[in-house]
Amino acid sequence: MMVPAMNRMQNRSANDDADRDLPVRKDGFSARYEFTEDHLQHAAFLAKSLSDGNRLRILVLISNGRKSVSAIVEKLDLSQPLVSHHLKELKRSLLVRVEREGPFVYYELADSRILDVLQILNDVATDLLTERKMF
User: Which residues contact 64 (CB under 8 A, 6 or more apart)?
Assistant: First the structure.
């Protein structure tokens, strides 16, 4: 399932550039965001899980409903061991829910907000690459 395209500019305010000049706290972060070390560790944990294209493809596929390993293998044209490896990582990071029915194991997206995160990451990447003049 493709996430509906959002207008990237709708999320930007006229003050976005001014926000860059917010006072910096003694821990190095701007006053606009309150991040503890735990927050950053949690975000890094999820970011690492989202850092593989095949994992992202799996997440998008199962966002349409639960799928068995064999269905994921078939739809994404990946090997069964590779899919199982990625599902193990996604399960470890709590991004998927697992349900066993007899000999079959089904996976589904644990939280639909993950799709929002993927859309935001895509929007930021698109904006940054569009603004890039040299490689």
Answer: 1
Taking alpha carbons only, the member of 104, 106, 123 closest to residue 115 is 123
Which tens digits make up the pLDDT trace of 5-54?
444 444 444 445 545 555 555 666 555 777 889 989 999 999 999 999 99
Q: How far apart are CA 29 and CA 50, in angstroms?
A: 24
Rounded CA-CA distance 108/94 in Å is 11
In the prediction, which pLDDT does 36 show? 87
Asked if 58 contacts 76 with a C-beta cutoff of 8 angstroms, the reply is: yes
Cα gap 27→13, rounded to integer Å: 26
What is d(CA 67, CA 53) in angstroms, rounded to the nearest whole number? 18
**3-state SS assignment for residue 45:** helix
The dihedrals phi and psi of 30, each to the nearest 5 degrees, come to -70, 155
Q: In what order do the strands lie in the sheet with 67-68?
A: 67-68, 104-109, 96-101
